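Practice problem: predict the structure.
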Amino acid sequence: MLSVGEVAGVLGLRSRRQETWSVTAFMDRIKDGLPVGAVERVARLLAPADVQFKYQIVPKATYERRKKGTRGLTLEEGSKLARVANVWSVALEVWKSDDEARGFLFRPHAMIADRRPIDVVIESEFGADAVADILNGLKYGTAP
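Answer:
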């Protein structure tokens, strides 16, 4: 099981205090509005060659407005980004390589109706759970 601190690290967040991340502190940080730069960071990690990927997380016009302003991400946008960062962390834990983790996330998978895992993760929390289940099955040798 991943720690909240690992996911916060993917997002480029630092704890506001010199202590480790708690689940509630992480949830509060998302609720307060993650920085727009976290979207760019996650997009560079997951899809370094795809300059449009970040717009799957935050629509282009909204992203550009947020970049120019002082407002962070909404709770919905931050939750989506955290979900993507979490699944990325699990994929890295399983595959041990950025390229292999990307390959898994961006290639259609039979266990999710031949959809790309990353699309399913972005779409909903249920999708993220389904992809995490596949990854955990691979990690622990219980995948069909």
